[in-house]
Amino acid sequence: MPKQNTETLAQRVKELKEHPLEQHGDETEAGNYFVSNYPPFSYWKPDMVDNIAPILLSDAPVDTNLGLYLHIPFCRKRCHFCYFRVYTDKSSSEINSYLESAIEELKVYSEKPYLQGRKPQFVYFGGGTPSYLSTHQLQDLTDRMKDLFPWDEVEEVAFEGEPGTLNEKKLTAIRDIGVTRLSIGVEAFDDHLLEVNGRAHRSKEAYRAMDFAKSLDFDQVNIDLIAGMMDETEDNWKKCVDIAIEQEPDCVTIYQMEIPYNTTIYKEMQEAGKVTAPVATWSTKRDWVDWAFDRFEAAGYSVTSAYTVVKNPETTKFVYRDSLWAGADLLSVGVASFGHFGGVHYQNQADVGPYMQAMEANELPIFRAYPTSHDERLLREFILQLKLGHTNISYFQDKYGADVTQVFSEPMELLRSRGYLSVDGDQVLINREGLLQIDKQLHEFFLPEHSDWKRYT
Ligand code: SF4
């Protein structure tokens, strides 16, 4: 590697770590921009795990919704932009052992006073690739989950699927276990893009999966798209959006490509001494998503958040997202999964080895935690709800006794001065331009003690 390039990269990474909130230009550089929780994960610590036990021993709350999340960390192949801990080499018996541990973990929780007898409002199978499991594994797993936490009050069962694993038999099994919302990881309809970005599937498999899913009458079929994959061009993107519209999914989730530090793409950037990721600039990605939103709207869809368009907003709900963004408890099991009980965030061990060892030792496999304060919970809900493009001032007054226009007057004024935010009666609104870069803008709300958060964690 040329010395000069090494120094440039090292300097740049140092600069990003020291001044993560600054505008670093339009190029896509390495780092996590997406705000999925608050405070950021880098503030969750192993020495805070002790905060979980007292919560679990306390009485079950009467007015807090509960969700279940199960993490399936297996994939056919690792995508070049993937930043999750995924395994592509596990045998069926190793997967069975993992599922046994996950059920055991759920069983331990089912006996805790805080969770005993509670019925989930929603269930989410994420990954990794939940559809990597065999039909038998899925049936057995969900039967046992239902024995521990009955699904008779469940409003949504969401399930992520990779197109290449979704044949008719598998999809029938997924529907029959009770999945209401199937999310298909299409990402793009162009085979060159799929190949260059390391996806396991090709467009033919995406079309086939969509056809089967539609014929099986799932309540909702969502497809995921990514704007700005490596080698993406404007023409490609527009074709991809038009094909997505032709496929008539109930909803479409669109992400702007980011390159976190633990991706294959970042490793290749490091080896080549490059600071800029080989993907479109942020302004290009915003333009592409803006174009896609317009196109979907012209086809009858509605933009319902910074990332989603839906065909029928009356019937297409996002129970998982909306409940979590309103402070629901999330009982999350499996390796690396993120959960939340009574104001305490937690994350499980991020590798299968320590995760399984903890379960064998009859210990909860929690790696790190964070007990949130009243102010942090208020801030968390407020910024996450802003991703919807609107939230209600009275909601926060009723729940937290706080006037958000006062508490957040400075960052709200900042966003207003940038032309992204307005207040209309009881509503705080974010316009399209703001939504297209909402994750960047939300950092303005972070408390001073979290303003040095590191995007690489
Ligand atoms: S399918 Fe998803 S979880 Fe699996 S490697 Fe690709 S991005 Fe990662």
Describe the structure.
This protein is of the alpha/beta class. The protein contains 18 helices and 15 strands. The protein has two domains: 43-323, tm_1862 like domain (pyruvate-formate lyase- activating enzyme); 373-457, Orthogonal Bundle (Arc Repressor Mutant, subunit A). Helix 8 (234-247) packs parallel to helix 10 (282-298). The chain is globular. The chain starts with a helix and ends in a 15-residue tail after the last helix. The model is unreliable at 1-10 and 12-23 (pLDDT under 50). The chain binds iron/sulfur cluster. Iron/sulfur cluster is lined by residues 75, 78-79, 82, 84, 86, 127-129, 162, 185.
Q: State the CATH class of the largest domain.
A: Alpha Beta
Strand arrangement in the largest pleated sheet = 7-8-6-5-4-3-2-1-9
Name of the CATH superfamily of the largest domain: tm_1862 like domain
> Taking all residues together, what is the mean pLDDT?
93
- The CATH architecture of the largest domain can be given as Alpha-Beta Horseshoe
**How far apart, in Å, are the first and last alpha carbons?**
26 Å
Specify Rg, calculated over alpha carbons: 22 Å
What name does CATH use for the topology of the largest domain?
Answer: pyruvate-formate lyase- activating enzyme
- How many strand segments? 15
